[in-house]
């Protein structure tokens, strides 16, 4: 199956959920509604053969100045048989940064979802073990957010080294 065929099948099945399709340098990215991410990912795996979640990460668009949602969750998936990649992006609102977990589709989503929650503050509904993975349990905030203090919580700002 070609990239275009996969996109057409996704658009046919989830016509109201596919918000945008972009191709750049041979890579296809679909922006989809966050509410439908679990169904879309299950379709990609079961019907389109994307049997591997290669990566999952969060993106903070605060500095982009757009009017859209502040966050995105990005899924890089791979069809090992066809040697085909596909990128899915799901916008997530700042007011309630949450999206459904895809651990039931790809077990490999467990730790990347935990990392995304720990560092970006995006919560994953129905995640089997959503807790900090990199920061200590008593850490305040999510350090990869663009509005997070550079020196960390409750610290004086860096003044330079005294020689």
From TrEMBL:
Subcellular location as annotated: Cell membrane
Principal location: membrane
Topology in membrane: Peripheral membrane protein
InterPro entries, alphabetized: NADH_DH_suC (IPR010218), NADH_quin_OxRdtase_su_C/D-like (IPR037232), NADH_UbQ_OxRdtase_30kDa_su (IPR001268), NADH_UbQ_OxRdtase_CS (IPR020396)
Domain of life where this protein originates: Bacteria
Keywords (A to Z) from UniProt: Cell membrane, Membrane, NAD, Quinone, Translocase, Transport, Ubiquinone
Broadest EC class assigned to this enzyme: translocase
Coiled-coil region list: none
EC number: 7.1.1.-
Subunit composition and interactions: NDH-1 is composed of 14 different subunits. Subunits NuoB, C, D, E, F, and G constitute the peripheral sector of the complex.
Annotated family: Belongs to the complex I 30 kDa subunit family.
Protein name: NADH-quinone oxidoreductase subunit C
Protein species of origin: Geoalkalibacter ferrihydriticus DSM 17813
Annotated gene: nuoC
């Amino acid at each position: 199956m070609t990239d275009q065929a996969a996109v057409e099948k996704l658009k046919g099945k989830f016509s109201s959920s596919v918000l945008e399709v972009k191709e750049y340098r041979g890579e296809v990215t679909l922006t989809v509604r966050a509410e439908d991410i679990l169904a879309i990912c299950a379709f990609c795996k079961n019907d389109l053969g994307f049997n591997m979640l290669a990566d999952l990460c969060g993106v903070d668009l605060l500095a982009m100045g757009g009017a859209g949602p502040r966050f995105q969750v990005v899924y890089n998936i791979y069809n090992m048989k066809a040697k085909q990649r596909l990128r899915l992006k799901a916008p997530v609102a700042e007011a309630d940064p949450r999206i459904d977990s895809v651990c039931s589709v790809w077990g490999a989503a467990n730790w990347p979802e935990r990392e995304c929650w720990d560092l970006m503050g995006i919560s994953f509904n129905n995640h089997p073990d959503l807790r900090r993975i990199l920061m200590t349990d008593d850490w305040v905030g999510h350090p990869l957010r663009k509005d997070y203090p550079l020196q960390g919580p409750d610290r004086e700002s860096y003044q330079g080294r005294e020689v």
